[in-house]
Amino acid sequence: YQRRVREAVVSTQSTGSSGINAEYGDSQHISTTMLRFTTLLLVLSGATLATDQETFRLSFGQKGLDWFETVLATMEDITKEIIMGGLVIDPMDLNGVEVTNLKMRDMELPKPELSIVPSKGYRLNSELTMVIDGDWSFGFLGGDLTVNTKLNLDAVAAVDADMKNGIFRTAAESCDVDFVSLEIDMKNEFLNNIAKGMVEDVKERIAGIVCKEVNTALDTSFNDLFQAIPHEVKLHLLTRDIVFGFGPDSNPIFSSDHVDVPCRVQAQSKIPFPFAPPRGISDSVDPEFIGCVLLSEHLVNSVSFLALGKGAIRENIPNKRFPIGSDLTNTAYFKKSLPQLYKAYPNKDVVYKISNLRYPKLEFERNLQKVDVPLRVLIQIDGATVINLKLSLKTRGHLNIAGNVITGSCDEIKTKTVVVSSKIGDIDAGLANDIMDDLFSKTIIPDV
After folding, report:
1. What is the pTM assigned to this prediction?
2. Extended strands (E) in 88-224
3. Could you give the percent of the chain with pLDDT greater than 70?
């Protein structure tokens, strides 16, 4: 079972890594790049610089546990295979009666119940029906027997952060077994009456076996599985490979109606990060939700800094959307708005080269997302730069997630243009800003 899960996890990680290969060529639009980047941030809910502070938090309420109960119920066949294949029942000596070769023939495991134990962990309550076959012997007498039992299992597990190894660990806190019924069939009415005197001993043995298996799973098997899950992910983001390491920030917080799992990650950067360490996360999940991922601004800005540094975002026109011959790609487009350009270069092909001067900075308010990125805009004719502009692009908008669909709306876009150099004489700052607004309204802003 661990091998199957490990292979599934590795397969998922591999698919995720190759699927998020953010290679953006010059022909793509900066707006599309930024939207995809925002989507990438949501997918990589843990990709950021590590500090000694929490950078993201996974939270889930009782509805999340209810959902997980349904998942476990759909895996009943797999669970039966694991339990029946791994359960070892030792021989029993019941007042001189030797019971050996005990094996589980069948079992029923209805949908379990999971609940939160405040300040401690979680509780598993499940009804279990088992049919066990075996052999018995007493002196020179012997035969086969069948044990039919129904019991209620109540187990509590704690979850702690193993900071040294960078994983969460489970530990068994308690295990109780309450028998609804237990019958021993020795294939003979007289012997069955004798077997009634062994019922309490058999209950005690079976309860010990069941709790031993549960405690072993919580103390060892689950933790081996956690250890096998990759804690590092290597992603190729634009022009560089970045390795992210994931781990706990502190022990999970078990409240009365939800669980918070504080996490942090690690990433290396040769350049110091230009912003303060994260302050931690104070928000919690709405108990009405199954669960959610809470992201800090430090998280998204760290990814932006690592992946989208100076020059990482590039946009060239002409491109597929605006090929040579389009209005934008000829100086005639500026005949009225910037007549000195047309006068100096009449009916000439124009090339625009747009790149970012630093990483996009993101800021979040409740139900609001802000993006601030400085851009370099070069207007070239015959391979030479005629106008060099520095532009600040700021946007405000909303990002909505419904099911597996991410949608966005842009409520406000502001640009501020500074003329760095010009070969056609002085250009008024207000005029330059109007020209860039017009240019961006036809190229970038519609996509934003």
Report:
1. 0.64
2. 92-94, 97-108, 113-117, 121-138, 141-162, 167-185
3. 78
